[in-house]
Amino acid sequence: MGFTPALHAEWIRTRTLRSQTVTLGAVLLATVAFSLLAAADTDAADTDPLFSAFFGVSFGQIAAVAFGTTAVAAEFQGGALRVSLAAVPRRGLWFAAKTTAIALPVLAVGLATGLLTWAVGRETSGARAAGFGTAEGLRAAVGCGLYLTLMALLAAGLTAVLRSGTATLAVLVPFLLIVSFVVGDMSGSVADLLPDRAGQIALHSTWDGALGPWTGLTVTALWTAAALAAGAWRVRRRDA
Predict the structure, then answer these.
(1) Is 0.85 topped by the overall pTM?
(2) What is the dihedral of CA 210, 178, 231, 17, to 10 degrees?
């Protein structure tokens, strides 16, 4: 089986699993809902208005991580991976199809989420919306889609390494919700190179430090590439 039919098979599996579609919907709903609350907060006048409009990405990324995690973790339950590899014996090709089937829907939902979040943020931020223009808003919307996709793939790669969705979520969710906030004010340090901190620079109208919006996303992409490479190696080396 070639890449295209393998991708088609993985796409059918993704769109027919209710848990997967619900998780994708949660990416949009969580991001927009929390962004709406942050943008409408009149006490946050001193914060970056663009990041306030996209604040919900910090919570929407949890749903993206869950999507990437569950998509891969399902293969390690009930011998599902043996069935998948019977259809696609080339493990590297199968893993490429699996991760592509994860990336494409998250990217589509992520871009839609970014554009909707930007539109809602402009309407609810009031006078603070003058703090960012169309160019910054579009950059943040595109950055939002790319960032959510990279985080879903990072989770997918880590799940392939750990072979457990529970273990992956136990590592990533506390990291994103606790560590990120703890080190959030450590600008200019090694904290700026963490995958979530670096990628979220694209959601700011101004930033300090050596990384900018696109270099920050590049750092996140390097983390993701490392996780996917480790996951692909693990899939090749470990028995199904």
Answers:
(1) yes
(2) -120
